[in-house]
Q: What sequence folds into this?
């Protein structure tokens, strides 16, 4: 396969603009270390110890995401989610919880949170999950996806490797987009089928497998430093 | 440990026997007094009969002309009866030979019954009857006596008759009494069985259940109330324990999160990596300890019908990045049909996570951990590690048992798996993977059809 080489589009750089994160956490030291830790990953964090202060802050600043501790002193974390969603504040919300119970997490997700992370956590994982949330379509990072030396502009539908654009089939690019949006996590075969071929469900079971093996070879050919792992019965994973 | 029924049975039996003995005694005494009266009448008649044969001859002398049968009966050597006829002075005019006792007091009467001891306080006792008669103005006394040995025979015969015929009446009476009592006791204690059944189902998950006092005999109500009060206190303790668990989770995890974040931002990256590894280890142990604490306060997990394949896929999806990161593979072998089991999703997820994590940590790099589902339903987790020798297969599920003392983990993972499977009324077992390595099998009771 020969890939045509074209210059990378200018807009690709805007992915690296600082993202502003709102943090509601009453534990001072944890708030400080999260702020410091995320700073290294290119996030700017404003931390507030109470729900009251945190919610007030949303009126002045356009935040890209919220990290919410469920155990705030003045308000229940679940209530905070409900109130923010009622105010049509649409940024993704990631719940931090020290509680083990599945119920809290499910309740949080039901109320409109997007993801959860249990304490203690690795800063790397917090950053990765934030990025995954922000890579969703319509989010800050949703326009340009980055993974290793791969960069994909979702608006122009253009894949750039090491600064050079490569031509790639529409189906392959669709699969890659999904894998890049959830880089480091498993994408089920079913999710790929649904996204690429619609929900009609009338897909040959081998179709996705054939497509992925073609995409894998393509990534090798164009010198990508990321590869697709197949997990039989589970799904596919683009190694971040 | 004697049952109430047994105690009542013993006491009733003793009482019944004593009452019977008293009744026998009374009847015996009654029979005896009747017998004396009968004997005296017989003796009196005998005396009157003999007196009727006393006549005066031409010279006016008394003469006794007894018919031969009567004479014979008093002559018999075995006979214990004797008679005598005395004149006014008490001189014996006629007699059967052996001496009779002295005359009794007549007290204006013509006849009298009496008894006396001829040999002092010996075995011999005499019963007698005397008749006063007058012929031509002369008084005569006729005595008839019988010794007591005869009376004993008579009495024995009467008693024997009574015992053999009348005594048996006691047995059915006694049995009926005992039977009715036992039935009454059993009926009265029946509500306790209901209470026992309720008590059997009380465990940490149903700590708010209390024993019913309805229909319980009033004597036992204080006991049931006291047990309920004890349950109140235990429930209170359990609640505090649960609160403690929730707080402990928060108190332990938040500082670990701070520590972890601080270590990650250290300048010396190689030291940071080593410390992060330790923190991760500690976090795992804390998580597992908290999970164990949580599971122990809920021995019966609330169950629902869940798709085993969905849970397995969920767990595998979460652990796949970890597997890939350590150069290992994870796969699910199943024909993609849902398998339903009756289980608690949260507990099942925890059990599967622990099992798959365990397999991933033992399988060497570049090998695959397989999760196989069957319709039985079972879930097999197969690794390519060193396997588990047969003699270690029991202790591997014990808390804090670690095959490799320096290995990662607290040695709690498999104990948790076993605990959860037991609570789900399933089981976990180990076998050898034919291709090398260990195969852990989770077995579930089949989901009931609805």
A:
């Amino acid at each position: 396969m020969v890939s045509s080489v074209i210059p990378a589009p200018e807009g690709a750089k805007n992915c690296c603009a600082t993202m502003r994160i709102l943090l509601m956490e009453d534990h001072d030291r944890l708030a400080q270390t999260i702020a410091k830790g995320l700073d290294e990953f290119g996030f700017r964090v404003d931390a507030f110890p109470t729900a009251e202060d945190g919610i007030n802050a949303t009126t002045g600043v356009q935040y890209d995401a919220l990290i919410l501790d469920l155990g705030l002193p003045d308000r229940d974390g679940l209530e905070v989610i409900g109130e923010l969603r009622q105010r049509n504040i649409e940024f993704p919300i990631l719940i931090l919880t020290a509680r083990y119970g599945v119920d809290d997490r499910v309740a949080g997700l039901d109320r409109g949170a997007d993801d959860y992370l249990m304490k203690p956590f690795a800063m790397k994982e917090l950053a990765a999950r934030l990025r995954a949330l922000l890579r969703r379509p319509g989010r800050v990072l949703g326009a340009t996806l980055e993974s290793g030396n791969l960069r994909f502009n979702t608006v122009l539908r253009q894949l750039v490797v090491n600064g050079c654009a490569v031509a790639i089939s529409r189906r392959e690019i669709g699969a890659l987009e999904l894998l890049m949006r959830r880089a480091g996590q498993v994408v089920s075969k079913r999710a790929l089928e649904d996204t690429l071929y619609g929900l009609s469900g009338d897909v040959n079971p081998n179709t996705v497998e054939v497509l992925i093996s073609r995409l894998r070879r393509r990534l090798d050919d164009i010198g990508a430093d990321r590869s697709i792992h197949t997990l039989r019965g589970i799904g596919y994973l683009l190694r971040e | 440990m004697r049952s109430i029924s047994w105690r009542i049975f013993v006491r009733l039996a003793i009482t019944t026997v004593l009452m019977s003995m008293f009744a026998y005694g009374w009847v015996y005494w009654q029979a005896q007094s009747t017998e004396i009266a009968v004997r005296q009448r017989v003796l009196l008649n005998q005396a009157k009969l003999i007196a009727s044969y006393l006549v005066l001859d031409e010279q006016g002398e008394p003469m006794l002309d007894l018919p031969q049968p009567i004479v014979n009966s008093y002559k018999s050597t075995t006979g214990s009866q004797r008679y005598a006829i005395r004149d006014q002075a008490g001189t014996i005019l006629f007699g059967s030979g052996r001496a009779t006792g002295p005359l009794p007091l007549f007290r204006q009467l013509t006849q009298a019954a009496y008894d006396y001891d001829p040999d002092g306080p010996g075995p011999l006792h005499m019963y007698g009857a005397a008749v006063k008669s007058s012929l031509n103005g002369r008084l005569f006394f006729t005595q008839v006596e019988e010794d007591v040995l005869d009376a004993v025979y008579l009495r024995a015969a009467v008693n024997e008759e009574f015992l053999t015929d009348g005594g048996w009446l006691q047995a059915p009476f006694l049995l009926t009494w005992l039977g009715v009592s036992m039935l009454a006791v059993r009926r009265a204690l029946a509500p306790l069985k209901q209470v026992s059944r309720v008590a059997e189902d009380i465990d940490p998950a149903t700590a708010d259940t209390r024993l019913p006092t309805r229909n319980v005999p009033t004597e036992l109500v204080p006991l049931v109330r006291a047990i309920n009060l004890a349950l109140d206190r235990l429930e209170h303790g359990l609640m505090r324990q649960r609160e403690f668990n929730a707080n402990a989770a928060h108190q332990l995890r938040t500082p670990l999160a701070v520590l972890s974040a601080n270590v990650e931002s250290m300048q010396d990256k190689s030291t940071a990596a080593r410390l992060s590894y330790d923190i991760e280890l500690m976090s795992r142990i804390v998580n597992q300890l908290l999970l164990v604490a949580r599971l122990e306060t809920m021995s019966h997990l609330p169950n629902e019908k869940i798709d085993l394949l969905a849970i397995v896929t969920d767990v595998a999806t979460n652990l796949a990045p970890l597997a890939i990161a350590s150069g290992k593979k994870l796969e699910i072998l199943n024909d993609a049909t849902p398998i339903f089991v009756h289980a608690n999703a949260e507990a099942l997820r925890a059990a599967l996570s622990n099992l798959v994590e365990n397999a991933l940590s033992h399988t060497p790099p570049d090998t695959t951990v397989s999760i196989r589902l069957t319709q039985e339903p079972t879930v097999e987790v197969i690794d390519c590690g060193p396997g588990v020798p047969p003699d270690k297969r029991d202790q591997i599920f014990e808390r804090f048992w670690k095959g490799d003392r320096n290995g990662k983990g607290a040695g709690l993972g498999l104990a948790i798996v076993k605990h959860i499977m037991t609570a789900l009324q399933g089981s976990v077992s180990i076998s050898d993977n034919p291709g090398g390595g260990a195969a852990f099998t989770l077995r579930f009771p089949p989901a009931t059809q609805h």
